[in-house]
Amino acid sequence: MKSHRHFILHKPHGYLSQFIYEKKRPKKKLGELYDFPEGTMAIGRLDEDSEGLLLLTTDGMMSEIVRSKTIEKEYLAQVDGTITQEAVEQLKKGVEIGFKGIRYTTKPCESQIIKELPECIGEGRRIRDERHGATSWLAVTLTEGKFRQVRKMTAAVGFPTLRLVRIRVGDIHLHNLKAGEVLEVTSFEINE
Description:
The chain is built from three helices and eleven strands; from the N terminus they run E-E-E-H-E-H-E-E-E-E-H-E-E-E.
């Protein structure tokens, strides 16, 4: 029986969460970051503009477990403006967003304003100059993952996301991995 391989990646901004992209414009793909074995797949996705923790595996069953509706995913979002506690409370209760052309109310989630960023966030790409207005950070922890959900949620409460970094999936944290770094692990210890 073939043993599966598992990887933890700090996906940099500007990369797709896939290995194949067949549209006309060339895009940066995961295979450019590391020599992953054949059959490796990303578990879930981070869009091209997002960064942070991405799990990869050669085990399709592991992918199903991680993508289940009970596993928490924690994000740090840098938003346009100084986010208010009122907006954070709205996020916690659930907000209405568009998903596949229909209105959808997000499930209640954890959210809080972040004053001090963890080191794993790093410098990142420059978003904009302070002269263009204040920015602030908040943490959002979800068990669901609709397309561009965190971005849609912060926009729905009046604070569009400028930078989005996933820092945790279940019990797996980004820790000190720098953008583009890959860590091979024997398994994923993911508790619900």
